Amino acid sequence: QEIDIADPVRTRAILERYGLNAKKSLGQNFLTRPQILKDIVAAADISEEDDVIEVGPGIGALTEQLARHAHHVLAFEIDENLLDVLDETLDPYKNVTIINADILKVNLPKVVAENLDGKHTLKVVANLPYYITTPILKGLLQSPLPLDQIVVMMQKEVADRLNAVPGTKPYGSLSVAVQLDMNVDIEFDVPKEAFMPRPKVDSAIVKLTHREPREVQPYSKDAFYKTVHGCFAHRRKTLWNNLMGIYGKEEDTKARLTAVLEKLDIKPGVRPERLTVDDFVRLTNELD
Ligand code: SAM
């Protein structure tokens, strides 16, 4: 068997042969540590039972490791210059489909229905393009697809935000939005030296799995995101001032907000980062 695509010597040879310069604008940082890729596949517990959606296969380093374990891999790559490369590097793997598309624009359920049999567990595994980590995550979390779990690499700093608890600096709207439905586990850190070219910051592998349903659910996800976003609009301001920002300062609005906060036993003078996910759910439902 040939050496792994992720092997640093092979990666460099592939990039040279195709005259490729990694595109910074597309977040192209290729992993060149086969062991880290194997650890990602292990963290996602990929087996023959699984179909995997990958975002940004690049030159195929992670795709290859996934293909060795999964039933099928469906990978979305925006850069058409990589298609010939992927054709060659992934030629030994017959269980891979590459789609040349922007993951933020593609109709994911449609492409999945066209390319996967619907009989396998669906997982997402990816080394994400960092400039669009948040929109990709939001898109996946709001997707109607039955995603069993999401195992993705992102900047360490963003991973810490996903995983943050109330009252800490990284805790914010992203933490709350993700933790509404998901358990967040940071599996391991990945140093910047593991990439070619090297990014400026270290990374981490994050695993998102579905948590048990909360006792109280928001009456609408959109309303929930709106409340959370609005409450964190100015982190240094009080919850009250942020609510004024969302709802205005009319006297009857103030009276209504005061009543809601009293009912929920939330002090108007707290900073938004003190509120738990459940607080935001209850706040959303009462504010309707
Ligand atoms: N999977 C490879 C690896 O681990 O070495 C490459 C990962 S690299 C961090 C991110 C990849 O995402 C690049 O190949 C880039 O071209 C691709 N990409 C960037 N924006 C994208 C988008 N909107 N849709 C799909 N792929 C995208």
UniProtKB/TrEMBL annotation:
Enzyme type, top EC level: transferase
Predominant subcellular localization, coarse grouping: cytoplasm
A Pfam family the protein falls into: RrnaAD
Keyword DNA damage appears in the UniProt entry: no
Family indicated by similarity: Belongs to the class I-like SAM-binding methyltransferase superfamily. rRNA adenine N(6)-methyltransferase family. RsmA subfamily.
Function recorded in the entry: Specifically dimethylates two adjacent adenosines (A1518 and A1519) in the loop of a conserved hairpin near the 3'-end of 16S rRNA in the 30S particle. May play a critical role in biogenesis of 30S subunits.
Protein name as it appears in the record: Ribosomal RNA small subunit methyltransferase A
Naturally occurring in which organism (per UniProt): Pediococcus parvulus
